[in-house]
Please model this.
Amino acid sequence: MIDKKHIGYEFLPITVPVEEGRLKFIAKALGETRDIYTDPDAAKAAGLPGLLAPPTFPFMLEIDALDLVNFMALLGETLEKLLHGEENFSYYAPIYAGEKITVRKTITDIIDKKEGTLQFVISDNTFTNQDGKIVAETRTNYVFRHK
Amino acid sequence: MKQNMTLPTFDSVNVGDEIPSLSTPPISRHTLALYCGASGDHNPIHVDLDFAKSSGLDDVIAHGMLSAGYLGRMLTNWVPQSALRSWKNRFTAMTQIGESVTCTGKIVEKFEKDGENFVRLEIQTNTPEAQTIVAEVVVVLA
Model:
């Protein structure tokens, strides 16, 4: 069982440069072929400052901040038990290649379900760009199966 | 692929309207290897068969967020990405190797708030076996 003492735990903030190469790789992995996601020159011609990061990109930064191995060590759990329950996004501004995004991630709740055979670890996450503007927020529900 | 040339407007859409759907080829191990590397989600349950078996599964399973990424493509085919305001995903079943993913959605509410026009959509992903994501999206329309 995961100890509720972890509620309130703040991960070390990380600042991630949004790299063109990574965004192209993500587009390939998602089967995305439209040029504002794949071709920096086309993105600029379309009036954007650089390649556009897709709407699920904040979750990828979240994983960077989390570090799954350290997360399991913190909770005293193993990856075999982990499932993704929910992922909720709020968007305030697009994210583009060339920006630097700071990710702040906090465990905000731990909830027992089904007489403790399931536990939900809820994390709230904030994404701030190089100008100090919050561009997105997410809430993640990590599900742990104990049985 | 071309962006939808006629952008939807608040007045041109109605509750009950379906947005253009999106279907993917079958998910392969290669698809998952690419997504593992690109996304940074290196959980071995998606790419390492031995690990998946030790977790009690018969095979590796797809990342839930890969299917969410396909939903993102469907949404941004319909409206510019800057129109997305919020998006809540609930993962309801696993996606297996060899399954294709079908994304669909429809408008369930039109509303105004603080001088802006919004629509709420219910969207989902399905494999041939199960509904895998149930989601709700709020989009701003001109």
